[in-house]
Amino acid sequence: MIDTVVIPAAGLGSRFYPVTEFIPKELLPVVSKPSIHYVVKEAYDSGIKNIIIVISERKELIKKYFTFEKNYLNSLYKYCSDEIINEVHEFKTKLDFYFVYQEKPLGLGDAILRCEDMIKNNPFAIILPDDLLVTNRETELSKMIKSFSKETGNYFTVKMLTKSEIPYHGIVASSDNINKSNDKVKITRIVEKPKIHDAPSDFGIIGRYIVTGDLFEAIKNSKPGILGEIQLTDSLNSMIENNLLTYGCKISSIRYDCGTPKGLAEATYNLSKSL
Question: CA Rg, the chain, in Å?
Fold first, then answer.
C-alpha cells in the first residue's frame, strides 16, 4: 500500500525573483490557493496519508501554511469559500505532514534522499509541485498506484512535448511504439535535458512518480554532476539497467508548468473561468 508522498520544495525559485526572495514559489497563488495546495489535494484524492515536504530554511512559510495555526483557521472561516474550508479541514484531520530540510541545493536526487529515514525501504510517491495536473477524473497518481499494486516497478507520468520544451525535460526511450495510443509504455532509458536532435522521443517526464524503496540505494550510488547535483534521472536509469520494470504513463490531465511565470499565469487564468 502506497500511502506516502515526497514533495520536493527546497528550490530557489529563481525564475520568479525578486518575489521569491520573500515568498516561496510554491506559495504563489493559482486563483486563490497556493500552487502547493493543489498538489497536496491531488495526493489526498489519490489515497495518500503522509505528506513529506522537503524545504530549506528560507521556506519556513510552507511549513507554517500546513501547520494550521488557530489564527489562520479563524481567518479561513471568516474569509474563504466552503470549498477551501472543507479542503483545509480534510488536510488537518486526515493527513500527517512532515518536513525535511535540504541544506544545500544539491539536486532532486539529494532532496529525495533526505527522506530515507522516514520512508525506509517502502514504495512511495513523488510529486514535483511545479507541475499542476488538472482533471475531473481519477488522478494520474491514483492510476499509477493501482498499476503498481498489480505489477511492482517504477512508474512516472509522461507527455508529448513541443520541440522547444524538449531541452528542459527528461526525455524517455521506449521498447514500445511510444506514439501509439497505449496509456502505458515500457521505458528503456531516460535522457536528461537533451538537445533536440539527441532526444530519443518527443515524450518527457512530468512530475509524478511511483518508486520502490530501492531508489535510495540507487541515489547513493549515483555520481554528482558537474554542478555537484545528484539527478533523479541517473538513479532511475541505473534501476532500469538493473532490470527493474519501469513504465511511462501518458497523462490525460491538463498540465500547467507553474514553475514558470507564464505557466502560473495560464493556470490562474484558465482555472478562474470556473469561478
Answer: 18
* Lookup: cell for 108: 532532486
Q: How many beta carbons lie within 10 A of that of residue 41, not counting itself?
A: 16
| Entry pTM | 0.95
Mean pLDDT confidence for 45-57: 97
Convert the pLDDT of each residue in 243-268 to its tens digit. 999 999 999 999 999 999 999 999 99
End-to-end CA distance of the chain: 36
Q: What is the CATH number of domain 4-272?
A: 3.90.550.10
In this structure, what are the phi and psi dihedrals at residue 69, rounded to the nearest 5 degrees? -65, 160
The domain segmentation of the chain, as residue ranges, is: 4-272
**Cα distances (angstroms) measured from residue 124 to each of 7, 111, 155, 214:** 11, 14, 11, 11
Which grid coordinates are listed for 2? Answer: 502506497
Q: What is the pLDDT of residues 104-121, one digit of tens each?
A: 889 999 999 999 999 999
Which of 218, 4, 256, 13 shows the shortest CA–CA distance to 126? 4
Does an H or E element contain 77, and which? helix 70-79
For residue 156, give Cα distances in angstroms to 4, 153, 184, 197: 16, 10, 10, 24
Q: Are strands 33-34 and 29-30 parallel, antiparallel or unpaired?
A: antiparallel
- pLDDT given at position 178: 87
